Amino acid sequence: MSNDNPYSQPEQPQQPYHQPPRKSDGKSTMVIVGVVLAVAFAVMLVCGGILVALMLPAVQAAREAARRMQCSNNIKQIGLALHNYHSTYNSLPPAYTVDANGRPLHSWRSIILPFVEQQALYDQIDFSKPWDAPENQAVAMTVVPTYSCPSTEIDPTMTTYVAVVHPQGIMSGATPTTFRQIIDGLSNTLMVVETDSANAVNWMSPDDIDLQAFLASGAARDHGGHPGGAHVLMGDGAVQFVTDSADQNLRKALVTKDGNEDFSAGF
Q1: Confidence band (pLDDT; 50, 70, 90) for 220?
Q2: How far apart are CA 83 and CA 234, in angstroms?
Q3: How does DSSP classify residue 143?
Q4: What dihedral do alpha carbons 139, 132, 234, 82 form, nearest 10°?
């Protein structure tokens, strides 16, 4: 029987049932985020460590190149000082000065101080007394930057810039040498060498090295200086890098000033 009641309400269609959304667990979300961040941080650390490991040799090489350049500049300054000394006194300085009994007193490094912009320090030295006399101790403990190789870790009052004292060398002892006496030519004869830390001396001390020490430095270097070799200052003021593997006869010939050698081909 149909419902003809005009006042009745039409039937409403049934709405589908929806389960109310569940509230999210805040603690679980934080844990997940924390894990993700921890993993990301760990990955960054690993990648950063690998990057540092890859870059470290390049950084060390760049630093050594800079130190080697500074060392070369120091030796060039010493060479310029020696040439200016020769221009002033018509000879190079002796390897050392001596007293009336022939005892060494002061090094050539002390003598050329005015020519490496250290006139004030030079004026404080009592050259009539030994370098290590009480009157000269304050000067001996003063650092002269020009005499310090930045690649060698030693007491800053010590130096690895020395002469090879030899009867046939430019630095033969207490007797000075003139450029005219260097028959081999200035470019074939060395004036100053860079030795290893085992042979370092106080810059003011009248001590250097002999031929045997110069030859040994090419066979077994204890230096902590430059890898593979060391600088030498030639008579013409040029700075060369002699490798540790350089021939021993070459080293001997570089020391003597009258052997008629020719090393224009390099080292």
Answers
A1: very low
A2: 11
A3: -
A4: 50
Joined together, the tokens standing for residue 52 give 């540092």
Task: Name the more confident of 10 and 64.
Answer: 64
Using alpha carbons, select from 134, 149, 82 the residue that is nearest to residue 113: 82
Q: How far is CA 253 from CA 185, 226, 257, 263, in A?
A: 12, 23, 8, 9
CA distance readout (Å), 46 to 40, 49, 233: 10, 5, 47
Q: Are 105 and 129 in contact (CB under 8 A)?
A: yes
Phi and psi torsions of 250, nearest 5°:
-65, -45
Amino acid at 255: V
Burial 19-29 (b: 16+ CB within 10 A, else e): eeeeeeeeeee
Distance CA 182, CA 205 (A): 26
Pairing of strands 229-234, 239-243: antiparallel
Joined tokens for residue 234: 């030639």
Q: Measure the CA–CA gap between 80 and 88, rounded to whole angstroms.
A: 12
Q: What is the pLDDT of residues 82-128, one digit of tens each?
A: 999 999 999 999 999 999 999 999 999 999 999 999 999 999 999 99
Strands (E), the chain: 96-98, 104-107, 158-159, 161-162, 190-194, 201-202, 229-234, 239-243
* Cβ atoms 148, 70 nearer than 8 A: no
Q: Cα angle vertex 238, ends 109, 207, to 5°?
A: 25
Distances, alpha carbon 181 to alpha carbons 92, 187, 210, 238, 257, in Å: 11, 13, 20, 18, 8
H or E element: which one contains 211? helix 211-216
